[in-house]
Amino acid sequence: MISIALPRLGTALASVRSLDQPVRRLGPYSCVGGFALLAVIALTLSRGALIAWQWQRVDATDDLWLLLLQGLRNDLMTIALCAAPAVLALPLFLALGRVQLWVRIASVWLGVCLVTVFFLELATPQFLIEYDSRPNRLFVEYLVYPREVSAMLWNGYRGLLLCTAIASAAVIWGSFRYFRKYPASLTPWHTRTILLVWPLAVLLLFVLIRSSFQHRPANIASFALCDDAMVNSLVVNSTYSVLSALYGLKNETRSSEMYGSLPFADMVQQVREGMALPSTSFTSDKYPTLHRQFASVRRDAPLNLVIVLEESLGAGFVQQLGGRPITPNLDRMASQGIWFDQLYATGTRSVRGIEAIVAGFPPTPALSVVKLSKSQQGFETLASVLRRAGYRNEFVYGGESHFDNMRGFFLGNGFHTVVDRQNFKSPQFVGSWGVSDEDLFAMADQRIRALDAGAHPFFMLVFTSSNHSPFEFPDGRIELVDAEKQTVNNAVRYADHALGRFIDRARGSDYWRNTLFLVVADHDTRVYGDELVPVSKFHIPGVILGADTQPLRVRSLVSQIDLAPTLLSLLGIDSHHPFPGRDLTRTLPEFGNSPAPVRPRAMMQFDRNYAWMEDNQVTVLLPDGGSREFLYDRAARTLEPAPTANAGAARRALANVLMPAWLYRERRYQSVE
Questions:
Q1: Do 435 and 429 contact (CB within 8 A), yes or no?
Q2: Helices 99-131 and 158-179: crossing angle, nearest 10°?
Q3: 30-53 and 99-131 are packed helices; what angle lies between their axes, rounded to 10 degrees?
Q4: How would you classify the pairing of strands 627-633 and 638-641?
Q5: Residue 405 has pLDDT above 90, yes or no
Q6: CB 115 within 8 Å of CB 175
Q7: Among 255, 439, 484, 517, which residue carries the largest CB count within 10 Å?
Q8: Which residue, among 286, 360, 413, 299, has the nearest Cα to 582 in the 3D structure?
Q9: What is the gyration radius of the CA atoms in the chain, in angstroms?
Q10: Closest CA to 590 of 285, 407, 340, 258
Q11: Is the dihedral of CA 626, 631, 632, 638 positive or negative?
Q12: SS (HEC) of 549-608
């Protein structure tokens, strides 16, 4: 529909010009007025189309008119932000007697801004499909990897990409035609008139940008109208959403403080109590979470460790977890090892899963520590703990390991070797994100056999990628779930097929008897919903297999950050580390701890909202410093408002989101050995 209308953009712009005749009487300010007119029309039409598309969820909020009004308010903020640099520069050109030159430069600048506004609105529908939100920080992060992203778009969304390119070209052409006539049709104004109007223009821009007469100016949190994060994202336009993300990057290390503050001693006490350790285990006041962990399983020799990190594999694809029956191999593993019924991811990105599983680090609203500058060396991970214990550590990935800064983070924090796309000789299949999972597991098996023949125990992290949009995998390997091949259901079935073959091959090998395997997802494929935090979309599968592991069904609530300390115990490794997660073998009733020393809990970061879950009670911290209480119905997979507030849970949640930000900022997430 959009592609049909776009060729008529020039005609549409011509008709718009008839509306801006009064604007052209604004003298040198006419280009600013024309930009504002076009931008308001474009953003209003785009928001209207998005609302119509998502009407079922918008209608449920019963806030349509408020949404539209607040949307217009946000659009005016964005327009003022774009216009401000040009308007502020006017006196300089006026002093030089070059007002005509200013109009030309301002017209070019505003034309570029208009093209950007149009482009981000055109990019919004597909981003909304993928992430249930307007373009945000994820959009900014992906721009750093043009090769991978362009390959994914070309192979999976070629038609959409071409339509967007054509639309963008049409917008550029139309904007050029529109703005090039302002210098030629400039209505002369006396210098004194320009100077008298300029302070009024600046004041107007200031008021629009601030958009509030309260103590603090409006920000992205000011436009949150309801419990549905996606609907809230429709209020702001995509340009403002991206600008807000870019601005927030400079405050990454203090991002958790938007939830509130706690005295330092109180924060430390809350976090330490939640770790369920005796006070004598903690070894440093300078490093608040640093403690000695004694393995609950005593071994003559420590086991090897292989972690298989499955890309985008949520509970909705796993029958054992109440999902669809499309992962038969994973379902089979539920009765063969330590199976987690209620395991929850900490975030919605692979680096967040890596952060939690490999570094045992809790989530914050900031970027994952995999990408942040202060965590590139000397930051504690499972690899660094095991390296001190004499392990050889490898990361095996079928794509380009520099993506999301994985290579740099791993090699700087305990891994010896990285095996990635360039190390695969003649793979059977290569997609946008790298070699197929079968090629990946063939390489992993080869590397494990070589490491097992060595003199040292080893740790290997294997990260899959076949279950990633655009869902490319080799033909003829599976019976398709959907008639169309490149769908998420078919990609999940293929990922499960490749995983099952790998585990069966490992089970028949010599290394099975002395190697522990953790199979776990990094996150779900699409995390969306009409709730402040869609808890059900953080539910993921996880199972520990191999060596002498006996079948066990863990029904208690578990977080990804609990896996690292639990694995250390099962490996038979006594260690000294700052992981704030819990050793489940010493805290859950399923492992014989009766009564359990602490209530099971999990934490989830969903964009700017943070959820703290204790059993079925969920506290959501909001970026304005407030919080909401819910009860999670596991059968219905929905959140319902809690009848009473839980001040204790809110305090624990706040402490546990403030602590990781502090640990990162102060470089206190390390061993002092």
A1: yes
A2: 160
A3: 10
A4: antiparallel
A5: no
A6: yes
A7: 517
A8: 360
A9: 27
A10: 340
A11: negative
A12: CCCEEEEEEEEHHHHHHHHHHHHCCCEEECCCCCCHHHCCHHHCCCCCCCCCEEEEEECC
For 153-167, 333-347, 469-483, which range has the lowest pLDDT when averaged over its residues? 153-167
Which residues does 559 contact at the CB level (< 8 Å), separation at least 6?
Answer: 343, 344, 346, 356, 581, 601, 602, 603
Q: Check if the beta carbon of residue 39 is closer than 8 Å to that of residue 79.
A: yes
CA atoms within 13 A on the CB side of 223: 25
pLDDT at 1: 39
Burial of 448 (0-12, 13-18, 19+ CB in 10 A): buried
Pairing of strands 458-463, 304-310: parallel
What is residue 7's predicted lDDT score, i.e. its pLDDT? 44
At position 391, the amino acid (one-letter code) is Y
Coil/strand/helix, residue 396: strand
pLDDT for residue 248: 65
Q: Within the chain, what is the greatest distance between any pair of CA atoms?
A: 91
**97-111 pLDDT, tens digit each:** 888 888 889 888 998
Read off the amino acid at residue 388: R
Structure token digits, residue 294: 């004694």
When pLDDT is averaged across residues 238-267 and rounded to a whole number, the result is 83
Name the helix (H) or strand (E) containing 459: strand 458-463
Under DSSP, the state recorded for 282 is B
The rounded distance, in Å, linking the Cα atoms of 427 and 311 is 20
The total of other beta-carbon atoms located within 10 Å of residue 105's CB is: 16
- Start-end of H helices in 20-98: 30-53, 55-61, 64-95
How large is the average pLDDT for residues 390-406? 92
pLDDT in tens, 578-629: 999 999 999 999 999 988 899 999 999 998 899 999 999 999 999 988 999 9
CA distance 326 to 524: 15
463 and 311 Cβ atoms separated by less than 8 Å? yes
Average pLDDT over residues 154-172: 73
Alpha helices in 470-509 (DSSP H): 488-507
Altogether, the residues listed in the chain come to a count of 673
Q: Which two tokens stand for residue 473?
A: 């995998």
Closest CA to 39 of 263, 215, 238: 238
